Amino acid sequence: KAGVTQTPRYLIKTRGQQVTLSCSPISGHRSVSWYQQTPGQGLQFLFEYFSETQRNKGNFPGRFSGRQFSNSRSEMNVSTLELGDSALYLCASSLAGVAAETQYFGPGTRLLVL
Amino acid sequence: AQTVTQSQPEMSVQEAETVTLSCTYDTSENNYYLFWYKQPPSRQMILVIRQEAYKQQNATENRFSVNFQKAAKSFSLKISDSQLGDTAMYFCAFMEYGNKLVFGAGTILRVKS
Question: Along the 113 residues of chain B, how does pLDDT read in single tens digits?
């Protein structure tokens, strides 16, 4: 079974631009969660989607948004990029998104904002 | 808010030896789940081991085992017979409900030959 895939793997943008990152979960998984990893703040939860609905949201500004499609693929969007948005963005999938399940992570998208 | 603390920013161990990574957490809940994830230089997060809080028996996965002390809110990871491939950043993580993982700051482990 294929793992979680994320595209693109690397991205360079300039301040003020917007960016869209994509995540395809493991086949059969319906929950997708997104995390931001930076040297200063560590790993922080962004949001979680299940059956095309956002179920949980972390403490990030409204510039960070996401969506999930009927095939469970998810995208996250960051508008009006700031230098501090430079990070590794990780997505993780699980079957039904309950606490008893393990989340499986993708390889991440490394975003650099100049 | 739940917090996870890893007090060892960096550790090193000789190949074939045993090392223990520490983790403490804070919660008022009784039912929750704990995880250790490994992040090698490739940046791929890999699950090492998980523990359900309602289980008293410590989890074991091959060379990896945990010491779960619920009353002390402690969840340490022991790696036996360390291998060069164990070199990575190790994250302790906590989940109580929903699907939100709360991570510690991580411990860099270097295995030396």
Answer: 679 999 999 999 999 999 999 999 998 888 899 999 999 998 889 999 999 999 989 999 999 999 999 999 999 999 999 999 999 999 999 987 777 899 999 999 999 99
- State which residue of chain A sits closest to B6, comparing Cα positions: A42
The neighbour count for residue B19, using CB atoms within 10 Å, is 20
Residue ranges, chain A, pLDDT below 70: 1, 99
Chain A residues with at least one Cβ partner in B under 8 Å: 31, 33, 35, 42-45, 48, 50, 55-56, 58, 88, 90, 92, 94, 97-108, 110
Q: HEC profile for chain B? A: CCEEECCCCEEEEECCCCEEECCEEECCCCCCEEEEEEECCCCCCEEEEEEECCCCCCCEECCEEEEEECCCCEEEEEECCCCHHHCEEEEEEEECCCCCCEECCCEEEEEEC
A-proximal residues of B, 35-64, CB under 8 Å = 35, 37, 42-47, 50, 52
